[in-house]
Amino acid sequence: MSAEGDPGRVRPGGRTARVRAAVLTAAGDLLAEQGFDRLDLADIARRAGVGKTTVYRRWGSVPNLVADLLAEMAEQSVPRTETGALEGDLQANARLVQRTLSDPRQGRLFTAIIAAATCDTRTAEALRRFYEVRIDEWAPCVQQAVDRGELLAGTDCREVIRAVSAPLYYRLLTVGQAPVEADADRAAQAAVAAARAGVFTTQVDEYGRADSG
Question: Are 95 and 191 contained in the same domain?
Answer without folding.
Answer: yes
